[in-house]
Write a structure and sequence with these properties.
With 488 residues, the chain is an alpha+beta fold. It contains 22 helices and eleven strands.
Length: 488
């Protein structure tokens, strides 16, 4: 396969990587679907896991160039489908009934991505239109092969480049593996959609299609049909009269709100998984990848964002040190100056002139210089932030991400880092302590018995200091119940 990059404005590293990936298939005589652009054929031939990386780059024309991003957008939902007959057979097996008895209509594929494809169907019983998602045949085996290759590559990188170990390549692949395995069970996706819907019911301008649990299984998922314009089709959005600038702001604010407020967010929020209804509501679907971050991490993330918004780089640096993201032996003031070099160009330059490729390159230099390790718990959050920002920029290249993010972050800071939040945290702590109240006397008694045991049988580490602390815990537990009742 001959790869000639049409996107000559893409960085040399990106162009070279795609050429390198394509060479093995050229030697093997692989042609692929000649109607597809060369870069898409290369990634499709490599396997479904590689397609995921292509989908990320498809949202970032500011990194890979407009032409290459447009090519890669095919990977979002326009990959070669498998036949409708195979899909019907899979649906019949999964639902234990012939397709014809469940649906009065069952279309050709309307969207096809790396994991599954979607068919529009009509329920025979009610006449309602639904979307039927069907996993690709053999997708589990294909992903296993890709993941094994990634593990091998990560191990080789760690051996050949000891300095790369701070990036924890194998941990990153393990995280990616966990995410992918969740995508391969559509029952988990249905559960994710249900939880996400419960969290976002009151979000204005946002809706999710409802899951039909009776017609869903491990390999098939049925949902309400969502009619709308693809968020990746700017011409269609303009023709429908939608305000793209407002949509760009809303999609970014919705993501931040879900991540900070709920700690549960859509982890694959590219244009292929977003539509705009005729009413202007943003419709999200494909919930195979969902992100979760705990409350402490949310607060750290919010403080970092807020520090950048306020241009308080010293505070941003301090939060990194407090959270353990930067080794304690590094200089906090020097790190703050490095962060200033990241933030100031964003504030002082028109959005269309900001080189995200250059910015990301400098950020990587900063993480290396200060010995920052990869935080696997933040990988999906950071990746999705990059994707969502890319979606927002595709709708409105002049968007100011910090200005758009400010009200969401400020609202979270006000509700979760103020006096009210301190009281709420105290109540939660007391509630936990109160649950241990009835058990603490027995724990203290057991500790005293162990303290009195003969020397050979006495476990190491038991001291009167421990007993005193346990006794104090008993008092705290008893008082905690009283205080909790008072607060409630």
């Amino acid at each position: 396969m001959r790869v000639i990059m049409d996107a000559m404005d893409a960085p040399p590293l990106v162009r070279g990587t795609l050429r390198f990936l394509a060479w093995p298939f050229q030697w093997l005589g692989y042609k692929g679907d000649l109607s597809m652009p060369p870069a898409v054929r290369a990634l499709t031939a490599l396997g479904p896991a590689y397609i995921k990386f292509g989908q990320i780059f498809s949202t970032r024309p500011d990194i890979v160039g407009d032409d290459l991003a447009a090519e890669l957008r095919i990977l979002q939902d326009k990959l070669p489908p498998f036949s409708v007959d195979i899909a019907k057979k899979s649906v019949s097996q999964a639902l234990s009934a012939p397709v014809e008895t469940i649906f009065s209509e069952f279309s050709e594929p309307v969207a096809a991505a790396s994991i599954a494809q979607v068919h529009k169907a009509r329920l025979r019983e009610s006449g309602a239109d639904v979307a039927v998602k069907v996993l690709r045949p053999g997708i589990e085996k294909a992903f296993r092969k890709d993941i094994d290759a990634f593990y091998f590559a990560a191990k080789m990188i760690e051996i050949l480049s000891p300095s790369s170990r701070r990036l924890r390549p194998r941990d990153v692949i393990a995280h990616f593996e966990g995410v992918v395995l969740g995508e391969l069970d559509l029952r988990l996706e249905a559960a994710s959609a249900s939880e996400f819907d419960a969290n976002t019911t009151d979000d204005p301008g946002f809706m999710l299609p409802a899951v039909n649990w009776d017609l869903s299984s491990r390999r098939v998922m049925t949902m309400q049909w969502a009619e709308g314009v693809s968020m990746g089709d700017n011409a269609a959005l303009d023709a429908a009269g939608h305000d793209r600038a407002e949509l760009g702001e809303r999609v970014l604010q919705l993501f931040l709100s879900h991540a900070l407020r709920d700690g549960y967010f859509h982890g694959d929020m590219h244009q292929g998984n977003l539509k705009v209804a005729s009413t202007g509501e943003i419709i999200a679907y494909d919930f195979g990848i969902m992100g979760h971050i705990d409350e402490y991490t949310r607060r750290v993330y919010a403080e970092i964002l807020y520090g950048f918004i306020q241009r308080d780089y010293k505070r941003v640096a301090e939060v990194h040190f407090e959270a353990g993201y930067v080794p304690a032996d590094r200089d906090v003031d020097e790190f703050a100056r490095a962060l200033r070099a990241v933030g100031e160009p964003i504030f002082g330059m028109d959005a269309t002139r900001i080189s995200m490729g250059g910015l990301l390159s400098y950020l990587f230099e900063v993480t290396e210089r200060f010995g920052m390790e990869t935080r696997t718990e933040l990988i999906l959050l950071q990746r999705t932030m990059v994707v969502v920002e890319g979606v927002a920029r595709s709708l409105n290249p002049q968007i100011n991400i910090w200005q758009v993010a400010k009200p969401v972050v400020e609202d979270y800071i006000r509700k979760n880092l103020g006096p009210g939040a301190a009281v709420r945290d105290l109540r939660r702590t007391i509630a936990v302590l109160s649950r241990y109240g009835p058990r603490l006397p027995q724990i203290v008694e057991n500790a005293l018995i162990r303290q009195a045991m003969p020397e050979p049988e006495k476990p190491k580490g038991i001291r009167w200091k421990s007993v005193v602390w346990l006794a104090l815990g008993t008092l705290i537990g008893a008082g905690a119940t009283f205080i909790l009742v008072s607060l409630v």
